[in-house]
Write a structure and sequence with these properties.
By secondary structure, the chain is α/β, with parallel strands linked by helices. Helix content is 39%, strand content 18%.
Length: 366
Amino acid sequence: MSHMRVLLLTDLDFALRECHLVDRLAVGLMGAGVSVARGAPMDVNTMRKGGLIACANYRDDTLPWARSMVADDFLADLEADGWGKDKIDVIHAFGRKSWPLAFTLAEKAGGAVVLEMWSADLLSNLPGEKRKNHIGAYMAPGRKIGELLRRKVNKNLVQVAPWGVLAPEDMEIRTPFSEMEKCISLVTVGSGHDIQAYRAMFVGLATIIDHYPQIVMFVSAPEAAGSKLYSMISELDLQGQVSLIPDAEASLGIVFKADMLLLPEARGEYRSLALDAMAAGMVVTALKDEYVDYLSTDETAILIETPIWDKWAHTLDDILHHPSRAVERALASRKKIQNDYTASRYIETVHLTYEKVIRGEVLSFT
């Protein structure tokens, strides 16, 4: 196949939350000989222009009538950063708010649009009929979302491409709870939308906190949810143990120093941070999520079936009473990540999907 040109286009939420996933994909594709460009909203300043990968920012608050001008400016910026004017083969759109620009770019610069279906919510918010001719693939990060997609769209356009992370054998991993007499550190990550799910976790924690006064918890959630979460923390008198922190996904070093990652919501949202934590040997405890493959069975995480405070209290107490069992589970999870969720496999699957899309071939579901 001739030199492939691929644009990785993210919206603001995805660019901030999954920066490491997209970075790894961009570098891996470039290593496979793909000409890669990146696009993100103006508020994203992590992309470096003038490097090996061309970059451009775009306005994401544009009214529909001005979208054509935004697309023209965006393409001009990519050209100025060294990407040239040749036809784009694939526009891979990450995040729902990147879709309008992706389709406008497809109309102007050619190429097929690949939609990353990272959340179950997207299943009820699919593109309209007039956009379908531009869609080359729906990329599902797991089988459950893929199966549901095949019932809603042309099944020949659905490809399952499990997200992957780095988990080499020589990776330095920290043994959880190795200093639990002094400190038990927990990190909580989520969207902050399901406040009642957070309440169940916090009440469960408050129930056992007297037995484990050395617990400290860092809670990462969007700023919009911060005031509600802080009120809840104060109401339960947990201010001494629980702190709100900014974007955990951008600070993996902080996350990996903790003993355990907690995921209190089940919203059908994929997060590569959870895979990174498993790869690093962390204990991961999560509300069971039938839409997320690695949170639907207990192969990779300690699961809580329902968002009820006593379930959280019992599970946390059991983990802290038997830390060696939890560590064994964490090591088994790491092995599962090494087998099924590697960055190299993800990059290879995505690359092969692009090739099939360009050739107009039927995609393989698995």
